[in-house]
C-alpha cells in the first residue's frame, strides 16, 4: 500500500525541478526559430561546432587512455596516499574552471613550471587546439575515472582469480575478464566525460584563448555572440549544446546508469 | 518644500552600481572619495550593454566607445550620454621590449605572438581600425573578450604583443612596456557616460557622473594617462 506523499515535500521538490527547468524554458521561449537554420548553418557556427567535436573527442580519448590505468590503480592497489591522489584527481570537478585554466597556464604556459621547457622544445599548448584539448581533458577526466573506478571496485575478485588459476596472465585477465565486466561503465564514463568536455568554457578561454577555427569552441562562440553581433546565434547554439547533453544523460540513464 | 530642496545633496549619497569598460578599472577604483558609494562591474563594454539590455541593475554605464553607448540610447535605456575622457592605443610588449617591436608593422612578424581584443570589444574594434589604417595584416593567436585580459596575455608572458590602451600599459607598471603608435595610425577611443533610466538611485547615479566629470575626477583620469574629453 503506497502512502500519500507529504504535500510540503512535493511542493519543494517541484520548486527544485522549476529551478532546473525554468532556464531551459527561457532558452526555448527566446529561441529565434525562424532563423534557426540560417544561424546553425553559418560558416562561423559550423567552424565552432566542428572544432568542439574535434577537441571533445580528443579530450575523451586522452581521458580514456590516461584514466583507465589510473582508475585501475585506484581501485586495486592499496598504497599510502591513495586518498590524497583521489582528492587531487577529483579536484577539477569542484574547482571553478577559470581557476583550472589559470593553474594550467602557470604549469604549462610559456613561462610555466613545465611549460618553459616545453616552449624550448617547440611545444606550445596555449593558443593551440592542443591547449583546448588539454583544458577539456583536465576538467572532464574525473567523470571518466570516477565512473570506471566505481565499476572496477564492484567486480567480483573471484572471477579474476579464477581466470588466473586457469593460467591467464595479468593482461589477459584484464582484457578478457575485467574489461568486459566494466564495459558499460567505461562507455558511460566516457560519454559523461565527453559531454562535460563539449561544454567546457572557463578553463579553455583562460588557458587556450579564443580564436575561431583554433580554440574557439562552441561554448566560447556562444559567449562571444551573446555579447556581440548575434545573440540569436548564441541562443540557438545553446539549445544545440543543451540537446546534446540531454540526449547523453537520458541515454545513459536508460542504458547504463540505472544504479546511479 | 525648501526642506526637500535642501535634502537634494544628501539624496546624492548612497550605493550606486556602475557598469564600466574594463579599461576604467584602475581609474574608477581610485576616484576621489565622496558620499556616493559605487560598486563596480568592469567588463568589455559590449558585454555590459547586453547585461543592461537584459535588465541588469546598473545605475550608471561608462563605455569605451560611442557604438556600445548608442545601442542603449537607441533602446531608450539611458539618459543623454556625456563624453568624459579619451584614450590612445598603444602596443603592450614584455618589459624592456625584448622582441624589439617598433610599430604596428612589426605585429605582422612571424616570430611575434600577437593577441588582440575581439572586434566586438571596443579595444578590438579600434585596433582593427588602426591596423587597417597602417595597412598591416596580423594573425592574432587569440581574440580576448575585454582589454584587460588582452593585456594579461602579455603580462603573463603568453603573448609578445597586444594592442591595448595607453592607460592599460601605464597601469601595468613594470609588468609591461609600451610602444607608441604614431598619431597618423592611432585611433582615439571616446568614453561616454550616462545614467541608466531604470535606476532607483537617480540622485546618487547623477552624482557619480558629476564626480567623474568634475575637475578632481578629470585630474584622476589625466593622472592615469587618459586624454581630456574635449
Describe this entry's structure for a reader.
The complex is a heterodimer of chains A (260) and B (230). Chain A has helices spanning 7-30, 36-40, 43-76, 82-94, 97-108, 115-120, 129-154, 157-165, 170-198, 202-207, 218-227, 231-255. With 260 residues, chain A is an all-alpha fold. Chain B folds into two domains: 2-86 and 190-223, D-Maltodextrin-Binding Protein, domain 2, CATH 3.40.190.10; 89-180, 3-Layer(aba) Sandwich (D-Maltodextrin-Binding Protein, domain 2). Helices cover 36% and strands 23% of the residues of chain B. Chain B is built from ten helices and ten strands. The longest helix of chain B is centred in the middle third of the chain and has 13 residues, at 122-134. Residues 1-10 of chain B have low confidence and may be disordered. The interface between A and B is medium-sized, with 21 and 20 residues.
Set out the fold topology:
The complex is a heterodimer of chains A (260) and B (230).
Chain A: H1 7-30, H2 36-40, H3 43-76, H4 82-94, H5 97-108, H6 115-120, H7 129-154, H8 157-165, H9 170-198, H10 202-207, H11 218-227, H12 231-255
Chain B: H1 2-6, H2 8-11, E1 14-21, H3 25-29, E2 36-43, H4 45-53, E3 60-62, H5 66-74, E4 82-87, E5 89-93, E6 114-117, H6 122-134, E7 142-144, H7 147-155, E8 161-165, H8 166-172, E9 177-180, E10 189-195, H9 202-213, H10 215-223
Parallel strand pairs in B: 1-2, 1-3, 6-7, 6-8
Antiparallel strand pairs in B: 3-10, 4-10, 5-8, 5-9
Helix pairs in contact in B: 4-5
Amino acid at each position: 500500500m503506497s502512502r500519500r506523499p507529504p504535500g510540503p515535500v512535493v511542493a519543494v521538490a517541484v520548486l527544485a525541478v522549476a529551478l532546473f527547468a525554468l532556464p531551459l524554458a527561457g532558452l526555448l521561449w527566446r529561441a529565434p526559430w525562424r532563423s534557426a537554420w540560417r544561424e546553425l548553418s553559418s560558416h562561423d557556427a559550423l567552424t565552432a561546432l566542428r572544432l568542439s567535436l574535434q577537441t571533445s573527442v580528443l579530450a575523451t580519448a586522452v581521458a580514456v587512455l590516461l584514466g583507465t590505468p589510473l582508475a585501475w590503480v585506484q581501485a586495486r592497489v592499496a598504497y599510502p596516499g591513495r586518498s590524497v591522489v583521489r582528492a587531487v584527481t577529483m579536484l577539477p570537478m569542484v574547482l571553478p574552471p577559470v581557476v583550472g585554466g589559470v593553474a594550467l597556464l602557470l604549469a604549462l604556459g610559456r613561462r610555466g613550471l613545465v611549460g618553459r621547457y616545453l616552449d624550448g622544445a617547440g611545444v606550445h599548448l596555449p593558443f593551440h587546439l592542443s591547449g583546448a584539448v588539454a583544458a577539456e581533458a583536465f576538467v572532464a577526466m574525473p567523470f571518466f575515472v570516477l565512473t570506471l573506478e566505481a565499476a572496477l571496485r564492484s567486480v567480483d575478485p573471484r572471477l579474476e582469480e579464477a581466470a588466473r588459476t586457469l593460467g591467464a596472465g595479468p593482461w589477459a585477465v584484464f582484457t578478457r575478464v575485467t574489461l568486459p565486466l566494466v564495459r558499460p561503465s567505461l562507455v558511460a564514463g566516457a560519454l559523461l566525460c565527453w559531454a562535460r568536455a563539449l561544454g567546457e568554457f572557463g578553463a579553455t578561454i583562460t588557458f587556450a584563448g579564443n580564436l575561431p577555427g583554433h580554440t574557439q569552441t562552441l561554448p566560447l562562440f556562444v559567449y562571444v555572440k551573446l555579447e556581440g553581433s548575434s545573440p540569436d546565434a548564441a541562443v540557438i547554439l545553446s539549445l544545440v549544446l543543451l540537446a546534446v547533453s540531454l540526449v547523453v544523460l537520458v541515454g545513459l540513464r536508460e542504458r547504463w546508469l540505472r544504479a546511479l | 518644500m525648501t526642506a526637500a530642496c535642501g535634502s537634494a545633496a544628501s539624496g546624492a549619497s548612497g550605493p550606486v552600481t556602475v557598469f564600466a569598460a574594463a579599461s576604467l578599472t584602475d581609474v574608477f577604483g581610485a576616484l576621489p572619495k565622496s558620499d556616493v558609494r559605487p560598486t563596480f562591474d568592469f567588463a568589455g563594454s559590449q558585454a555590459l550593454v547586453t547585461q543592461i539590455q537584459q535588465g541588469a541593475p546598473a545605475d550608471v554605464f561608462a563605455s569605451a566607445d560611442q557604438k556600445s553607448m548608442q545601442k542603449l540610447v537607441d533602446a531608450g535605456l539611458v539618459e543623454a550620454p556625456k563624453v568624459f575622457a579619451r584614450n590612445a592605443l598603444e602596443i603592450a610588449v614584455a618589459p624592456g621590449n625584448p622582441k624589439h617591436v617598433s610599430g604596428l608593422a612589426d605585429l605582422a612578424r612571424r616570430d611575434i605572438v600577437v593577441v588582440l581584443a575581439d572586434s566586438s570589444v571596443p579595444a578590438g574594434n579600434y585596433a582593427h581600425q588602426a591596423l587597417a589604417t597602417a595597412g598591416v595584416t596580423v594573425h592574432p593567436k587569440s581574440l580576448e573578450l575585454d582589454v584587460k585580459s588582452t593585456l594579461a596575455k602579455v603580462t603573463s608572458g603568453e603573448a609578445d604583443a597586444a594592442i591595448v590602451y595607453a592607460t592599460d600599459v601605464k597601469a601595468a607598471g613594470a609588468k609591461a612596456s609600451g610602444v607608441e603608435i604614431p598619431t597618423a595610425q592611432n585611433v582615439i577611443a571616446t568614453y561616454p557616460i550616462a545614467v541608466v533610466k531604470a535606476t532607483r538611485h537617480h540622485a546618487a547615479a547623477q552624482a557619480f557622473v558629476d564626480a567623474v566629470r568634475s575637475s578632481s575626477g578629470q585630474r584622476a583620469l589625466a593622472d592615469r594617462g587618459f586624454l581630456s574629453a574635449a
